């Protein structure tokens, strides 16, 4: 994801037609019913804004659904971490939406080729990662913009993250947190064995990354783009897709850029 040049402008008018979506947990369902009773509800395609009730996982599902539809999404945390969410508060929702700050996010696009020749395409707002399918470590070659950069990485896996996703799996794999305005994509190994000291790289957001699985029959590898998993891949290409975008709404002072900065100073 990259930061839109007009990042975080306020909405001019509060959206009147709201669509409420909630995960199936009791907390989210109860919140959903109260909010619908209070503010009404409309179909997703007719909405001026979508209100997502749940955690980060459900928020990602909702953002994926909204990508390319020009419908802003405002999340309220009814889950656990809620990194992409705003605090839950059912009062004065239209007023909060009127002053919300906007972040325009761009997904990664993954194109994977399997050993049987089939091809698969999927989008990711968090990350794309490759991971070994068996007890044996994966062997992967890495090319950046058509140039070989890593002849052989022996590892459990490797991932490319968006800046917003850099605080998720990427951070757990000891990758760097990237500010939204950095226009960078972290490339991070997962439990690298050789080269043991390689900690990954920061790539420009324009880069195209190609992973080639070495010894694919002996060391099978799966590829995952957020919610889409493809098994027995032999090559995977990842790049940022500027043809699609999604807009996320945040309360003032709680925008995603600020959260990413704050995360770097947390314990």
UniProtKB/TrEMBL annotation:
It catalyses: NAD(+) + ATP = ADP + NADP(+) + H(+). InterPro entries: ATP-NAD_kinase_N, ATP-NAD_kinase_PpnK-typ_C, NAD/diacylglycerol_kinase_sf, NADK. Its cofactor is a divalent metal cation. One of its GO terms (molecular function) is NAD+ kinase activity. NAD(+) binds at residues 56-57, 126-127, 156, 164, 167-172. GO terms for cellular component: cytoplasm. Keywords: ATP-binding, Cytoplasm, Kinase, NAD, NADP, Nucleotide-binding, Transferase. The active site is at residue 56. It holds the Pfam family NAD_kinase. This is NAD kinase. It comes from Acetobacter nitrogenifigens DSM 23921 = NBRC 105050. The gene is nadK.
């Amino acid at each position: 994801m990259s930061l839109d040049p007009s990042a975080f402008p306020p909405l001019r008018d509060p959206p009147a037609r709201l669509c409420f979506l909630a995960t199936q947990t009791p907390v989210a369902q109860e919140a959903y019913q109260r909010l619908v009773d209070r503010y009404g509800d409309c179909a997703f395609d007719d909405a001026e804004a979508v209100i997502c009730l749940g955690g980060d996982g459900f928020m990602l599902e909702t953002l994926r659904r909204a990508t390319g539809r020009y419908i802003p999404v405002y999340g309220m945390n009814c889950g656990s971490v809620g990194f992409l969410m705003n605090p839950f508060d059912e009062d004065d929702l239209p007023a909060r939406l009127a002053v919300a700050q906007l972040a325009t996010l761009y997904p990664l696009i993954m194109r994977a080729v399997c050993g049987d020749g089939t091809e698969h395409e999927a989008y990711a707002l968090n990350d794309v990662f490759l991971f070994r399918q068996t007890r044996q470590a994966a062997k992967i070659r890495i090319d950046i913009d058509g140039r070989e950069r890593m002849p052989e990485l022996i590892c459990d896996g490797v991932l490319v993250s968006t800046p917003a996703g850099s605080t998720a799996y990427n951070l757990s794999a000891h990758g760097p947190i990237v500010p939204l305005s950095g226009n960078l994509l972290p490339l991070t190994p997962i439990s690298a064995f050789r080269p043991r000291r390689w900690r990954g790289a920061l790539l420009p957001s324009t880069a195209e990354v190609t992973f080639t699985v070495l010894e694919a029959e002996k060391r099978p590898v799966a590829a995952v783009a957020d919610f889409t998993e493809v098994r027995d891949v032999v090559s995977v290409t990842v790049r940022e897709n500027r043809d699609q975008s999604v807009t996320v709404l945040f309360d003032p002072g709680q925008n995603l850029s600020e959260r990413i900065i704050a995360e770097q100073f947390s314990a």
